[in-house]
Prior knowledge:
two-stranded antiparallel ribbon
Amino acid sequence: MHTRDNLLAEWRQRALKLQDEINQVVIGLQDPVHKITVAVFSRGHVMLEGDVGVGKTTLLRAVARTLGGAYERIEGTIDLMPGDLIYHTYIDENGKPRVDPGPLLKHDEELSIFFFNEVNRARPQVHSLLLRVMAERSVSAFNRSYRFPYLQVFADRNRVEKEETFEMPSAARDRFLMELHIELPTEPELRTRLMFDPRFHQVDELIESLKPAVVPYREIDAIARIIQEQVKASTTLQNYALDLWQATRHPHKYGILIDGVEMPNLVMAGASARGMSMLLRAARVRAWLAERDYLIPEDLQVLFREVVAHRIFFTPVYELQREAITAELIPAILDQIAAP
């Protein structure tokens, strides 16, 4: 076996161990945990959606613990300004004003996971700064440029309260590799454990119980590049991906119908080129985790909703029904486009 193959096999075991560790503290979330693992090795940012108290923060703290590096979290509020991410001002014990690095800068390049809670409560100016951090993994402050080579951004949206919220612009949403929906487990035995097992009531102790730095975060970029080089897509698979892409832009041309929707007037903008390249990037990681060096249609299908749905923008009359329409449109695209 080649040295590169040995390396990928070794790292596959580390990735699977990462999943196993996280699943010890967030029960009933195997699918989101798997997709976050895909995102980690795709080097993509992730938006989480779900009700309050379903375990999003615990999940991200577990990811940060098992990856190593520094973890920071900030709460989106109506009065949050871009500077609040970069510096912190206060009066010290001597009554003198002080300026310290904010959550983005305090760990410098050691920052591994940055969690922006309730991002839609923050102003558009804050979204603009976040967009640069996500796109360039850098920010300018104090007359220098700070780089975050190992950074992954996670965010979540408050989907219950609509007052004092600002929807993220399409350019910012397009920077997220995935949008993952996190829900409470449906199995009664798992819900019972969450309610009555004291282990799940002490989150700090729960996180501390995890083995730290299962996957050395500084080395992930190099492995991610090798994965993309090693996992191949056949011409037939490429054509299938292209058809999926076109169907996000012109679903009516592929015979896709949704009750009550004028299909030619539904889509204002389909998935971007960046979005489809991210889908292929994530699909290669999924194939690697399944011990394959080639893509199959299922690799795209399993990730299609999470990677592509938030990149399809509807005309204003239908945008208010986004959740219901998307729930029908995505399966319809996968059904109508014949898999090789």
